[in-house]
Write a sequence for this structure.
């Protein structure tokens, strides 16, 4: 199973792909996290990517693609994975298709599209900044008004067309209303994943075996 969690900045992609990953016992790969980890390491790739990210601009495809290609070739991805924040350009989608083909004729199973209104996106990002400050943490460097507006623009210009490209290639897309409470969205994400063939019974069995059925986020009850 290879799922793409699709949505605008602050739509809840990270939260819901994380929960799905836990429930299905397959890794969640966030390109934002991969890039931030690379930046933290101080590698040349990370430094270049960071200069784009802080402005709210997409990192160059060649950097993102090299990180994703290495990550999805790892052993823990063999049974499937969830992509959070990738692909974000039509070129990334096409490169992903090629990577999957050479990795054993694999394909994206489907796309779960989180639909959240612009007002809600803005209110969530502001809430995240306030929560970070209240907790004594420094907000993400791209969580400021100028960078956030630019992230929304980049999403409309580069990322929204990726959905059309999947549609044109006959890949199933399941829209989910992401405006409500976390648990409501989580339930809809679960239903969308089931429609795409996800087997939560088996995943639950596996999780029980590992003793990790309890979600780390008490606000979310996916299963
Ligand atoms: P959000 O979706 O809220 O913007 P992310 O952590 O997914 O948060 O992304 C943060 C930033 O990382 C993006 O604004 C962009 O600069 C960079 N980034 C993440 N994923 C990609 C990608 N697939 N392609 C290019 N840049 C990316």
């Amino acid at each position: 199973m290879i799922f793409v969690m699709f949505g605008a900045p602050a739509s809840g992609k990270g939260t819901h792909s994380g929960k799905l990953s836990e429930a299905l016992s397959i890794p969640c790969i966030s390109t934002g996290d991969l890039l931030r980890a690379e930046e933290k390491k101080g590698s040349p790739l990370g430094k270049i990517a960071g200069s784009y990210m802080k402005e709210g601009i997409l990192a160059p495809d060649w950097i993102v693609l090299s990180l994703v290609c290495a990550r999805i070739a790892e052993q823990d991805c063999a049974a499937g994975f969830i992509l959070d924040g990738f692909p974000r350009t039509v070129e990334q989608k096409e490169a992903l298709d090629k990577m999957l083909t050479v990795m054993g004729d694999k394909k994206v199973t489907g796309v779960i599209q989180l639909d959240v209104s612009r007002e809600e996106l803005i209110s969530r990002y502001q809430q995240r900044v306030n929560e970070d400050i209240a907790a004594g943490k420094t907000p993400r460097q791209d969580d400021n008004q100028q960078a956030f507006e630019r992230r929304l623009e980049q999403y409309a210009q580069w990322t929204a067309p990726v959905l059309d490209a999947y549609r044109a290639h006959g890949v199933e897309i399941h829209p989910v209303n992401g405006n409500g409470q976390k648990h409501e969205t989580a339930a809809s994400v679960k239903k969308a994943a089931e429609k795409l063939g996800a087997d939560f019974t088996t995943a639950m069995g596996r999780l029980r075996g590992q003793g990790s059925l309890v979600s780390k986020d008490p606000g979310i009850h996916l299963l």
Q: What stands out?
A: DSSP finds nine helices and five strands in the chain. The pocket of adenosine-5'-diphosphate is lined by residues 9-10, 31-32, 35, 52-53, 56-59, 64, 85-86, 88, 92, 142, 151 (CB under 6 Å). The chain has a mean pLDDT of 91. The two ends are 18 Å apart (CA to CA).
